[in-house]
């Protein structure tokens, strides 16, 4: 993917993320590598080094899970969303046809990313970030049935999926968590879930070279496998040249996903 040197300046050192396998793991989300720099190791040169960490951590919400193969959604756990959590309406994340809720909470020195389903299930994972600003999150289901969550910590957005009523950190080809750059290293500027040829997909964006008429926007489709546990770079598309104030440029510099509203972490500076 082309670097947006005209907009971003020289890339800074990258920090890759360590993968996490379950709803009670802790993932460090300080990375700034984008889709071309991390998950696309087969097409571009990834950054070196990894300082991410994972550990078993309890959550304020139950991590008891069930499957959703019957289309009835996740079984109710009887747990409530923490009172101080920032919440938002997401897409259908458990496959029962009803929209669910995504939430973020900072409780007892732990930061939580969680889901509360329309069927009454509440489950979460913890995360860490060196950024002092409030995190935000969006989540929706793609046309292939993968339920994705994007956790925005300011400089990057970490990719998670909902698998069997658990929040799972999606890993790249190096086994580290897949992240999207938000314009700090030149690898990308945003991420979204656009509809392309009547299919809702996950895609990383990079606002690239400047022209007289605007800026080039490159879109990289993200290929998900194993229910969303793994991600690799797919096809890259030059979507054209767009004016700075166009909706295409705004989307390419944002973290969005389908119908999901944005949950904001409370108690921190936005």
Question: What oligomeric state is this?
Answer: single chain
How many beta-strand elements?
A: 17
Measured between the Cα atoms of the first and last residue, the distance is: 30 Å
Structural class label: mainly beta
Mean pLDDT value? 78
Secondary-structure element order, as H and E? HEEEEEEEEEEEEEEEEHE
Keywords: Signal
Region (Disordered): 40-93
Signal peptide: 1-25
Biased composition (Low complexity): 40-68, 83-92
Explain how this protein is built.
Residues 40-68, 83-92 have a biased composition (Low complexity). Residues 40-93 are annotated as: Disordered. Residues 1-25 form the signal peptide. Keywords: Signal. There is one protein chain. By secondary structure, this protein is mostly beta strands. It has one domain. The chain is built from two helices and 17 strands. The protein has helices at 5-8, 247-252; strands at 26-28, 86-89, 101-107, 110-116, 122-128, 136-141, 147-152, 156-163, 166-169, 179-181, 190-192, 195-196, 199-200, 203-211, 214-225, 230-242, 263-264. Strands 6, 7, 8, 9, 10 and 17 form a six-stranded antiparallel β-sheet that branches. The chain has a five-stranded mixed β-sheet with strand order 1-5-4-3-2, with no helix packed on it. Strands 11-14-15-16 form a four-stranded antiparallel β-sheet. It is globular and about 55 Å long. The protein starts with a helix and ends in a 6-residue tail after the last strand. 53% of the residues are buried. Mean pLDDT is 78; it is low at 1-25, 29-59 and 61-67.
